[in-house]
Specification:
alpha+beta, Serine Protease, Human Cytomegalovirus Protease, Chain A, 6-stranded mixed beta sheet, 4-stranded antiparallel beta sheet, 3 helices, disordered C terminus
């Protein structure tokens, strides 16, 4: 069980255009800004076990669980880890908050994405500032926020107009197959 005190959050850069947000919530081996006396990097594979387990990850606005934009369990948030980092593809909820986030990201008023996590394995190096490497994390949320901690990430907004309802259903079924191990 995750204790609230163990949850950490990191913020990243966002850009937008359309009704879907895509990009990287984390870029491997790229340093964060100073996080209060330490700088952090994320090692390749840090999210792999969390994704393999099918952990239910929320997409939020500013880490607020009252402002849900999507969810991996519902198939509206899709996450993958590749050589660059943690990639997300988010079908933003057609809610007041969702429309506001899309508008603000499109205008450039919100320029960050973040992730909430619980560290499973990390390594610290003493120095000024101290260095922390995230080796394995339990991923809890991906968040759109105006406060990026990792400047190397990229996010863009895409329109879903070209995607048919059949394609949306097929993507959702593919997600369920992966989540439940259905062949």
């Amino acid at each position: 069980m995750t204790k609230l005190a163990d949850i950490e959050r990191r913020a990243l850069e966002v850009r937008a255009d359309g009704s879907r947000l895509t990009g990287y919530a984390a870029v491997f081996n790229s340093p964060s800004h100073d996080l209060g006396g330490f700088v952090e990097t994320i090692k390749p594979g840090a999210f792999a076990n969390s994704l393999r387990r099918g952990d239910d990850v929320l997409a939020l606005y500013h880490h607020d669980t009252r402002a849900v934009l999507g969810r991996s369990k519902a198939g509206t948030l899709r996450l993958t880890e590749d050589a660059k980092g943690l990639r997300f593809d988010l079908d933003v909820a057609n809610t007041t908050v969702g429309r506001d986030v899309l508008e603000s990201v499109g205008r450039g008023d919100i320029t960050g994405a973040s992730f909430g996590f619980r560290a499973i394995r990390d390594a610290w190096t003493k120095g000024v500032p101290h260095m922390r490497e995230l080796i394995e994390v339990e991923l809890l949320d991906v968040t759109i926020t105006p406060s990026p901690a990792y400047p190397a990430t990229v996010v863009s907004r895409r329109s879903l107009d070209a995607i048919t309802e059949a394609e949306r259903r097929a993507r959702y079924l593919d997600h369920l197959r992966g989540y439940h191990g259905i062949a």
